[in-house]
Amino acid sequence: MLSEDKKVYLHFAYADLTEIVMFKNYTGEINETGIKIGDSKADFQNAYPDAEKCPNMDSLMVPIDFGWGIDYRGHDEKAKLIADFKDGKIDRIRMDVYSTDDCTYYDGPESAQSITPTKTTIKNGKIQVDGEPVFLVGPEYSPVDVCNCFGCYPSDQLRDYYSAVPERDIDNISEMGVNVVMPGTWDFDRNHNDFLNMCFNEGNDPIYVIAPHRTYIDFSNPSYLEDKITDFASNVENHKDHPAVIMWSLHKEDGWIDGHEEEWYTLVNECAKKAHELDPNHLVAAQIGGLDEISSYESLCLDVDVWLVEGKGMAMRGYGDYLSIGEFNSEYEKISDKPMIPYNMGIDDYDASQPNEALSKSQGEIIQADKTVELLNDMKSTSSAGLILSGYQDKLYADGGLCDKTSYCDPVPSNVSPDGCYSAEGTGLVEPQDNGEALDTMRLKPIYNAIKNFLK
Known about the structure:
This protein is of the alpha/beta class. It has helices at 41-47, 164-176, 193-200, 224-239, 261-278, 291-297, 325-335, 357-380, 446-455; strands at residues 7-13, 18-25, 52-53, 59-64, 79-86, 89-97, 120-123, 126-129, 132-133, 136-141, 180-183, 208-213, 245-250, 283-288, 306-312, 315-317, 322-323, 340-345, 386-389, 412-413, 421-422, 430-433, 441-444. It folds into two domains: 7-97, no CATH class; 120-455, Glycosidases (TIM Barrel, Alpha-Beta Barrel). An eight-stranded parallel barrel has the order 10-11-12-13-14-15-18-19. Helix 4 (224-239) packs parallel to helix 5 (261-278) and helix 8 (357-380) packs parallel to helix 9 (446-455).
């Protein structure tokens, strides 16, 4: 709940810039109507008869104009006011702008559970956490509810006040026995102590976090290098003292750096150098495509400590082809002595060889579990430092952005999937189950239990 003595920030997060556009004391009351935290849902509906329900949430939203007019980018800065309810009463009041830009009232995160950061080092090619060798296994974590109202949730659900989603998931992730997660969305200038505290769990079987940095780069902008280093430094400064954080990572998306590879890896190394200046306790990792890229750009990245090597299905990218984990590892050791963590590995749960979708799903989930255990066993015989699985939950929102809770995207041909096809929706360890206005529940898939048994 927003407390009356808290200060409130109103942010607009753009692709290349986050600026504070409003700062004021918050009294917990909307001046125009007198509506305040603790009022009933009926009170809010009487004050705002046009209020609409947020899908999958116990929340109401209403258009509201604060008279900001047109900003210097030409955006019409109208917003929607959102009231979140708990036990029939207003628990939180916030805003989102009418665009893809993100805007929210924020009452301040929790403080970190400890002020002593975890120290990660490399010894004999292996990653150590506080002097103890670890093999890092865990999923990429990008929570989005089925048919999520993207205006009701921010893109980065691991920040600030948005704790309900990770609170639902972290217990499941911990019970599985993994020791790391890599968030898929992470606003670099926001505080994530709430989420990090959940992961660290007061040091009791902690789940460590590889803190990512993923922003679009306009290589035509002469100041892009300086801007991105500044952004990355902000991420490091915000989170370097939290004991859940063990590593920074720099990420690219397909197509972002085409034709600018040398510039990208130069930027990556400058960011890594900056991180080491600001934070002597943590390693810096960078996503890279495979052996071709490693061979070409290793020399530009002397300050990068760990490669996150892109996988696909059950295989790794080789020299223009895909290799088994063992084959890849043998070739990798010839060109790099950095610890290597395969990233985005695993297969979907759709078996295209079956005659109907129901069998494709049921049989595919068994194959997914068995093949993932094979993958983990293969990893034990290599010099890799860990494995980041392709995702915690099925991406049932992936079908062109449409809401499809029951059927798959059309599987695409894939030479690295057992059935020769790949479906983006079914790569998770759990499957979201639509729960009406409340948060989705999660069904534990066979792969979840297979990994849990493997890691015992």
